[in-house]
Amino acid sequence: MSTRPRLFVPTDLMAGSPVALDENQSKYLFRVMRLDVGDEVRVFNGRHGEWLARVDQILGKSAGLLKVDECLREQRKLTDLHLLFAPLKKTRTDFVVEKATELGVEVIQPVITQYTQSERVRVDRLTNIVMEAAEQTERLNIPRVQQPLHLIRALEALPSDRRVYFCDERGDDEAAEWGGELNRARPMIDVLQDHGKGSAAILIGPEGGFSPQERDVLRKTEGIYPVSLGPRILRAETAAVAALTLYQAICDDWRAVEDGTGLDE
Ligand code: SAM
Predict the structure, then answer these.
(1) Which residues contact 132 (CB under 8 A, 6 or more apart)?
(2) Residue 155: per-residue pLDDT
(3) pLDDT of residue 262
(4) Checking CA distances to 27, which of 19, 63, 111, 142 falls within 20 to 30 Å?
(5) Nearest residue (CA) to ligand 1, atom 10
């Protein structure tokens, strides 16, 4: 396990190129990690793989320069997985975006539904969380956190070939607890095994779930697949982690042998 610090940088990466550090990165490397000139850092930008760089200049406590040395890992094909979720209370939303980053999500799309409680989403703050999580989790890019959209707008914005797995904990029997067994969604594991790998999105509702009108639209829309995560009602953040885990384990990169293939530039 490498102990070299790992940083996301926006600049192009090639042997000999300079990397200017921002204030936070300089404070982290020079104050917290106490690096000196010549010490090694790993850098990645989401396009050119991961490179070894060395501290070239320390310009006071809040600036510095690295010099890129050699490529450590080629950029690899990444999963094509989106997460659509209704924003939750602050710490729980932070948890969802951090775990979604660790679980390989490419796009995080907050969706506003009828019962969403926290419509305000600080995208800049969530982007910092996903950047730190991506550095820690050793992935080669940063997921995109989008501005919140109304549920229907967010679904309309998805390309038609992206399957949407709508995590639906209810049945349709109004007289029974949680809708009883009537029209209950199929187990997610079965639906994923039928479909296999592809462009996918996972949709998670708010603490109060989806409204009957929303469920009706979701269940009637082609390309949207209601799926069950078992007989218990999971908290939204638990459901997000469970569904993302199932998807990666059955359809995507938890099986993938790192093939090292580069991205199409
Ligand atoms: N509707 C319930 C309520 O009013 O408390 C529960 C909503 S649950 C806390 C939040 C979201 O997690 C749901 O909208 C659904 O997307 C997902 N979820 C929770 N348990 C689930 C299950 N057993 N199967 C599928 N999705 C589930």
Answers:
(1) none
(2) 97
(3) 37
(4) 142
(5) 236
Residue segments in the chain with a per-residue pLDDT below the cut of 50: 259-265
Task: Select from 85, 174, 219, 234 the residue to mutate for testing ligand 1; criterion: most ligand atoms less than 8 Å from CB.
Answer: 234
Distance 95 CA to ligand 1 centre (A): 17
Give residue 147 CA to ligand 1 midpoint distance, Å: 23
Please tell me the predicted confidence (pLDDT) of residue 2. Answer: 63
Q: What is the value of pTM for the model shown?
A: 0.91
Tokens of 240: 């997000």
The residue contributing the CA closest to ligand 1 atom 21 is 169
Handedness of CA 14, 16, 22, 28 (dihedral sign): positive
Structural contact between residues 96 and 242, judged by C-beta atoms closer than 8 angstroms: no
Contact of 88 with 206, CB cutoff 8 Å: yes
The neighbouring-strand residues paired with 203 are 84, 166
Sign of the CA dihedral with 73 first, then 78, 82, and 85 last? negative
The full set of domains in the chain, from first to last, is 6-73 (2.40.240.20), 81-259 (3.40.1280.10)
**Residues contacting 139, CB < 8 A, separation 6+:** 78, 101, 104
Q: What is the dihedral of CA 46, 49, 55, 56, to 10 degrees?
A: -90
46, 82 Cβ separation under 8 angstroms? no
Note the pLDDT of residue 90: 86
Q: Which two tokens stand for residue 130?
A: 């996903």
Measured distance CA(252)–CA(248) in Å, rounded: 5
- Distance separating the N- and C-terminal Cα atoms of the chain: 29
